[in-house]
Amino acid sequence: MDEYLVTCINKRDRMSSHEHITHIGNITNTPASRWRMTREEAIRRIDAKTAAFYTVDKSTDRKMYIGVVREIGKNPYLRTHADGKWNDNLLAQPECDSSCALVS
Fold it and tell me: How high is the pLDDT of residue 44?
């Protein structure tokens, strides 16, 4: 299974706590290898167990894996999970910019 470090996200309305993440990506790579993908594609890869996505906690340098949250009546969404608890570290990532190539 491939693992991907996530260092950026996109939301339609960055300031809204009710908007889901639309894309995840990595802006720390060299410009030629920067990437982003849709939430749906990331969920598909996580569910198929072909990829794992994670962020790194800056205070501990620990990987925090991204999981899929499913709630009745809502679209599935992405959230980080560490030490047995869901947290909001993914939302703390900066915006992906236009230098990130869209992958599918």
Answer: 96
Residue partners of 52: CB distance under 8 A and separation at least 6:
1, 2, 3, 4, 46, 65, 66
Residue 54 to residue 90: CA distance in whole angstroms: 9
**Which tokens in the block code for residue 41?**
């594609």
Range of the domain at 54: 2-96
Asked whether residue 19 is assigned to any structural domain, the reply reads yes
pTM of the model: 0.86
Report how far Cα 19 is from the mean position of its chain's Cα atoms: 14
Using one digit for the tens of pLDDT, what is the confidence trace for 33-45?
889 999 999 999 9
- Is the residue at 101 inside a domain? no
